[in-house]
Amino acid sequence: MHALREALAEFVELVLPVGCAGCGRPGVPLCPVCASAVRVPPRRVAATVLASRGGAPVWAGPDYAGCVARTVVAWKEAARRDLAAVLAGVLAEVVATALREGGPGSGGRRDDRPVLVVPVPSAGRAVRRRGEDVTRVLAALAVARLRRVGAATVPPLRVAPLLRQRAGVRDQAGLSAGARRANLAGGLRVARGARRLLPGRPVVVVDDIVTTGATLAAAEETLRASGADVVTLCALTATPCRRALAAPRSLD
Length: 252
Known about the structure:
By secondary structure, this protein is α/β, with parallel strands linked by helices. The protein has 9 helices and 8 strands. A 6-stranded mixed β-sheet has the order 1-2-8-7-3-4, sandwiched between helices. Strands 5-6 form a two-stranded antiparallel sheet. α9 links the parallel β7 and β8 (229-238).
């Protein structure tokens, strides 16, 4: 299924002109204006669910609105894999900033083991529709980028897709805050055989979009229950109901 999807995407690119995913400008995957909107400095997030609880700090990239939202949807739902490198760069900045601000080694903490970057798993139906788990793919690309350009400023990282969705969990898109919490109540589990990796291990949880924070909260709780030290929660983008708390340094 994945190979067929990639072949179809390549065919479409050959017969149809490429347009900016954010505004439709012809000839470029992402025009300079939309690229600037996507590449904003990461900021702290205050989401509905996460703001009312303790736990790890949350960082995200640009607001999920306008050309940013159109770009993310094109990457996720329209197989615009030509956008993956740009979006992976954004997520890499988010992870690097979060780790510099509060990851292993900050505040006197020391842990020489690689930090586990754990992507939030997509719903099974979404994976089948898209041909891949897009968040898992993006996490791998972001970590690969950090290994190339961020090795001096971030600890060693390892992508670890350790979370699984239990049967019956729906795609979160379109659900209210209460429905999101109910949908994910007990809906995540640690993969069989992975529990031994987690006690005391520093972990970064990554997702594509944070809305209410219900998904990230469920992931954090599931990992902490297995002994993980969840140091931060990161998302590519966030819905506008949040506030900025910090301005980071750039990787470039």
